[in-house]
Amino acid sequence: MGYAEVYNAAKTDPEGFWLEQSQAIDWVEAPNKALFDKGDNLYEWFADAKVNSCYNAVDRHVENGRADQVAVIYDSPITGAKEKITFADLQTRVAGLAGALVAQGVTKGDRVIIYMPMVPQAIEAMLACARIGAVHSVVFGGFAAHELAVRIDDCEPKAIIAASCGLEPNRTVHYKPLLDDAIEQSKHKPDTCIILQREQEICDLIEGRDLEWNAAIALGTPADCIPVEGNHPAYILYTSGTTGAPKGVVRHTAGHLVALNWTMKNVYQCDPGDVFWAASDVGWVVGHSYIAYGPLIHGNTTVVFEGKPVGTPDAGTFWRVIEEHNVRSFFTAPTAIRAVKREDPKGLEIKKYDISGLRALYLAGERADPDTIVWAQESLGVPVYDHWWQTETGYCIAGNPAGLEALPVKIGSPTVPMPGYDVQILDDAGHPLPAGELGAIVIKLPLPPGTLPTLWNAEDRFQKSYLHAFPGFYETGDAGMIDEDGYLYIMARTDDVINVAGHRLSTGAMEEVLASHPDVAECAVIGVADALKGQAPMGFVCLNSGVNRPHEEVTKECVKLIRDQIGPVAAFKLALVVDRLPKTRSGKILRATMVKIADSEAFKMPATIDDPAILDEIKEALQAIGFAKD
Ligand code: COA
Ligand code: AMP
Predict the structure, then answer these.
(1) Which of 239, 394, 542, 599 is in the most buried spot, having the most CB atoms within 10 Å?
(2) Which of 490, 496, 500 to mutate to test the pocket of ligand 2 (most atoms within 8 A of CB)?
(3) Which of the 8 DSSP states describes residue 415?
(4) To 10 degrees, what angle do helices 507-515 and 551-565 make?
């Protein structure tokens, strides 16, 4: 069957299609039914089944002849460490850590926060939670203590698993002081913290609360896999919304297993035993789906890479890893390829390595610009597949189903909707738009298995954020179009979310932080074009009357405030003091117009603008720092 047949099969008989796909999973109690309609536009998949994710990702492979196959390759160009962990080793390590959690009183349904760098123990921690039915929530290491505290208070973890430090090329990230600070700030306190002491930095442990990794394992006995219901939350992953409060995306166990397993062959062209590499971070959804779960569920070897595309040690790192570990499918963000291209425009580093085992490069996380795609196609000599997804969906909404049928690549398009996704383009009033016209990208409900059923402790917010604007549809927050051939194009966000180096950030959250500066009366944060990172945040602040300090002093404080409150990942380095912000007559800040001015693009004067002269002031301020060129 080709793409069209499979897509149509999933559309006409979702129940039959997904039940058939579910046969690739080892169930404790197989599902009798695929889709459960919970009313109020809420749906669940395989809710009547019983299953365990860790069993499917680890134990079943040990039992089925893959015990000695390498499951995880750890490659850290930052420390020089390399390690190969077989499925049998992984089972021992994960069962031990799961036993440690049990010994600390963690049971099915308890939340566990994981705050770790790119080391194999991060994957082991996720799987250990899955093994005993605990719900993990991984927090990206680039977030500051405050962001960690917000997540601690929202999901109220019984335990936290962390490392003593992370390693960035230019500095050590002191995880433990950040963790201690976050627990100090949060109302909820975890009972236990299990800490991986890395040899690069041994941290202090707080007696009565903190346990060293191996000591914690020694206190327990290896734990078995516990069957959980198909709709049991596998994890919560926080992502940026329009406000400072992150959204806790919930992932149910069974749909996640079925959907990810389907993608490994049909999208990523992997057969069990192949090496798959997603150069992302476990703190992001890509890391959850394609560093941890997807490859392992499907019996693939996954690569845990602690490094950067450039500088660790050079722009050949990716190609060295691909050669050394015989990577068949490689997944990263366009920004990473841009970083490599900037340093090695002629692709000389690529020629130093034998990457003939590579089948394709997959890009996601942000818009893939044509220059980057063409450079990668020509330099690597393999197909380059852009695919579009969100934390909410957990895997691609649109992509090129290369393992099923490689469709022609149209540069600028992530290709076509995947089975189960009925993607449509609507105007503001909810009317379908014809091919080629730009509108809101929505997905007809129900969403396929593996996608978010709700937000953690926030069903109302789930309804309001995703389901209210277009009744019967999930609102993606992206705008775009579909062409005559059914190819999708993702053009922009329709909300205040920006994408910096493939990282999803909320300008609203940054505005909340800037507004807390004692000298700031009002502010706006926008995303301006950035050649490397796609977008970069830029803040505009108006000072309280009577504040007579040098502007550079205030802007420096603003930059520091965002780094301290949100974290270095916000990459907030541009701040400007202005007298006034451009607004509509009803007081709405004209952020989209400000973006156009900063990016030196033509714009239409908004009809509702209160005082057009303010736009000239903004332009002047931007020109002074090299933006808004005439
Ligand atoms: N822990 C702590 N800090 C982190 C971090 C982590 N896991 N990841 C990033 N940071 C820090 C960086 O050190 C940097 O700090 P600095 O301001 O002190 O230099 C800051 O956060 C901004 O990071 P980033 O935006 O990633 O910029 P960079 O200049 O360090 O690297 C790239 C640029 C393009 C090389 C890098 O962004 C990259 O590899 N991107 C790929 C993105 C990706 O994989 N996205 C996942 C979706 S697929
Ligand atoms: P995240 O939830 O961090 O994965 O970010 C999801 C958002 O990133 C999407 O809503 C898009 O705005 C953007 N995005 C992800 N992949 C792509 C892509 N292939 N093309 C364009 N935008 C993308």
Answers:
(1) 394
(2) 490
(3) B
(4) 120
Question: What is the whole-number distance in angstroms between the Cα of residue 236 and the centre of ligand 1?
Answer: 22
Write the residue with the smallest CA distance to atom 3 of ligand 1: 142
pLDDT score of 241: 84
Pair of tokens at residue 157: 């973890």
Q: Give, for ligand 1, the residue of 116, 165, 167, 168 to mutate: max count of ligand atoms closer than 8 Å to Cβ.
A: 168
pLDDT of 108: 98
| Under 8 Å between Cβ of 454 and 463 | no
Domain assignment of residue 299, yes or no: no
Instruction: Compute and round to an integer the Cα radius of gyration of the chain.
Output: 24
Does the CB atom of residue 59 touch ligand 1 within 6 A? no
| DSSP calls for 340-387 | HHHH-TT-HHHHTS--TT--EEEE-SS---HHHHHHHHHHH-S-EEE-
Among the atoms of ligand 1, which is closest to the Cα of residue 532? 34
Name the closest-CA residue to atom 14, ligand 1: 568
Could you give the C-alpha distances from 389 to 2, 289, 478, 525, in angstroms and in order? 22, 12, 10, 24
Whether 335 lines ligand 1, by a CB cut-off of 6 Å, is: yes
Domain boundary among 179, 198, 226: 226
Beta bridge pairs of residue 74: 83, 304
Of the candidates 176, 194, 226, which is a domain's last residue? 226
CB atoms within 10 A of CB 468: 11
- Decide whether any atom of ligand 2 lies within 6 Å of the 367 Cβ: yes
Domain hosting 575: range is 502-623
Quote the pLDDT of residue 630: 83
What is the pLDDT at residue 542? Answer: 98
* 571 assigned to some structural domain: yes
Ligand 2 site, residue 391, Cβ cutoff 6 A = yes
Which are the contacts of 500, defined by CB distance < 8 A and separation ≥ 6? 527, 530, 533, 534, 535, 536, 537, 570, 571
What's the CATH code of the domain at 103?
3.40.50.980
Total structural domains in the chain?
2
Q: How many residues make up the chain in this entry? A: 630
Closest ligand 1 atom, residue 278 Cα: 48
Contacts of 546 (CB under 8 A, 6+ apart): none
Query: CB–CB of 450/260 below 8 Å?
Result: yes
Residue identifier of the C-alpha nearest atom 6 of ligand 1: 142
d(CA 364, ligand 2 centre) in Å: 7
Residue 572 included in any domain = yes
Whether residue 363 contacts residue 384, with contact meaning beta carbons closer than 8 Å, is answered with: yes
Q: What is the pLDDT of residue 67?
A: 98
Per-residue pLDDT tens over the stretch 345-392: 999 999 999 999 999 999 999 999 999 999 999 999 999 999 999 999
**Domain contains 133:** yes
Whichever domain contains 616, its CATH number is 3.30.300.30
> What is the reported pLDDT for 243?
80
**Ligand 2 pocket, residue 387 CB under 6 Å:** yes
Query: In angstroms, what CA-CA distances link 152 with 111, 158, 164, 381, 446?
Result: 10, 10, 18, 45, 31
Q: Is the CB of 478 under 6 A from ligand 2?
A: yes
What are all long-range contacts of 210-217, with beta carbons under 8 Å and residues at least 24 apart?
211/100, 211/104, 213/97, 213/121, 216/97, 216/100, 216/103, 216/104, 216/192, 217/96, 217/97, 217/99, 217/100
| Ranges in the chain, pLDDT < 70 | none
For the entire predicted model, the pTM comes to: 0.97
166: Cβ below 6 Å to ligand 1? yes
